[in-house]
Amino acid sequence: MVTGWTSSSDRHGARIWRAPDLGGVELFRASLTEFSFSPHAHEEFFIALTERGRAAAVYRGGTHMVGPGDVIMLNPEEPHAGGPPAGAGWTYRALYADPALMSGIAADLGADSGGKPPRFGRDLVRDRDVTARLRHFHRLAETPLTEALERETYLAETLVLLAGRHGEPPREPRAAGREHDAVRLCREYLRAHARENVTLQTLSGLTGLSPFHLCRVFGKAVGMTPHAYLTQARVRRAKALLKTGLPAGEVAVEAGFYDQAHLTRHFKRLVGVTPARYARDAAVRSL
Question: Which CATH architecture has domain 229-286?
Fold first, then answer.
């Protein structure tokens, strides 16, 4: 469960919240009408995805019309302003990423970053892969019951993709090597700590790899993300417990799920039947 998050919202449908477990990333969601931002700038990188409607955004010496799927990426201290045109609405999601976090992303790209964060110069980005990952991450980050490992993984993938494809100059991520020891340590740790809210930062410290590189190394070797592997370990534990006749509610807690509904959702996705059905069939087989 998410802990330590701060959040606020207003009657106009805008909400802002901060995620300390994601490097202090700040997130914003709003549905705006008859509203325009005055010229201002942020200390952080500003990354905004339009979900619905349109807006006239003023930055980099011009006015840019943005619509669904468009992504704006501004560097720290770049002034911008604007909002939906008269009679229109604008729904968008934004994240504010600290330069230190973006420096870590840049270091994971192929070329030597010199410890500097990436720079963005395009007026707009239209990239389906970026849009899909950014939207998925933002929605995960808005849901308190999602796990840190899942949120961290999607954030890492999103920012590496953004910086790699659309930074100046574009760069390919460092090639994912085999790193057998790192993958082995991760697998062992995830199995041993399946009941815990494991974080990507913990796995990074365990292996000595950056969180972003670790995701790719693990995915290449195992064929799934660390979070997917953790979920699999929990489901396997749940199967073993269900065979003993333990009630599904207790199985959920013992296997590392939030509650029975959380167990059921993931169990059916991996096994194909609900925990209750699996338990009944296991009881029949044991007769």
Answer: Orthogonal Bundle (1.10)
Residue 21 has pLDDT above 80, yes or no: no
- Token pair of 116 as six digits: 């500097």
pLDDT above 60 for 8 = no
Which pTM was predicted? 0.83
CB of 137 closer than 8 Å to CB of 71: no
Distances (CA, A) of 88 to 3, 11, 38, 124: 37, 18, 18, 20
User: Could you count the other beta carbons within 10 Å of the beta carbon of residue 199?
Assistant: 18
On the 0-12 / 13-18 / 19+ scale of CB atoms within 10 A, 284 is: exposed
Residue of 259, 250, 248, 198 lying closest to 228 (CA atoms): 198
DSSP-derived secondary structure for 225-287:
-HHHHHHHHHHHHHHHHHHTT--HHHHHHHHT-SSHHHHHHHHHHHHSS-HHHHHHHHHHHH-
Say if strands 89-97 and 25-33 run parallel, antiparallel, or are unpaired: antiparallel
Domain 6-166 has CATH 3.20.110.20: no
Q: From residue 191, give the alpha-carbon distance in Å to each of 82, 147, 184, 255.
A: 49, 16, 11, 11
List the chain domain ranges: 6-166, 180-223, 229-286
For 112-122, write each residue's pLDDT tens digit: 666 789 999 99
Residue with tokens 């995701």: 215
Cα distance between residue 33 and residue 53, in whole Å? 10
166 has a pLDDT exceeding 50: yes
- CB-CB contact of 271 with 278 (8 Å): yes
Spatial CB neighbours of 73, under 8 Å, sequence gap ≥ 6: 45, 46, 47, 48, 120, 122, 125, 162, 166
The total number of residues written for the chain in this structure: 287
Distance of CA 194 to the CA centre of its chain: 20
